[in-house]
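We store chain and fold; thus.
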Amino acid sequence: MALLEVSKLRMQFGGLLALDDVDLTIDERQIKGLIGPNGAGKTTFFNCVTGVYQPTSGSVTLDGKSLLRRKPHQVTKLGIARTFQNIRLFANMTALENVMVGLDARNRTSVPGAIARPPRARREEREAVVNGHDLLKRVGIGHLADNVSKNLSYGDQRRVEIARALGTRPKLLLLDEPAAGMNPSEKASLMVLIRSIREEGITILLIEHDMKVVMGICEDVVVLDFGRRIAGGPPEVVQRDPQVIEAYLGAGAAGTADAAGA
């Protein structure tokens, strides 16, 4: 059953057409890759889905509900969470405090209530601490809960960001280059983590340049180039598509798409 359906998505910035009638569907519990050269429109696609940008035209639905004209926090409440290409943690907060920010998206306490701290607010805060520790353990860094985020390794910061996103209890998790800056061991561990998240019932769409990661975890891949969808299907098929090879290596390129992922 389709969870996310995107049809003829178009995003124009003045004279620049960043997305040109892009179609994409993700089934429940699927791990799908969104790949393409730099500047292909991948992050713009994420921004349109999550309410950061309002697309020029097209439709975006989650579980049959339109996401158009909704603000990012409204999209989050409907069940989409994301990480970012450039890590966006609160640098001077601990790993636990960063994750608690994500958990706060599901709290019911109002701003005045948070200030007055009635029993419900205090209970939600205690629960957030427990749940925050659980989420950090879930992504493999429970022992780093009290470390200030800016002092963590790049790979561990990525894990904090994933834990924070999971704190919003998403149906769909969007990961923007989660393996960027990681060494091979960290990438292998990340792939295990992503599979485990899917096993818990969360659907995943990821942007990734590392083709070994894409080939290792994605069941289906969509390729963008200059804002257009040029290919889609199983990764082992897509990586050999002549249009995909040309997009990565240029016209007249020869060889397999393994080179395209280099």
The CA atoms of residues 86 and 249 lie 25 Å apart. Residues 253-262 have pLDDT under 50 and may be disordered. The two ends are 34 Å apart (CA to CA).
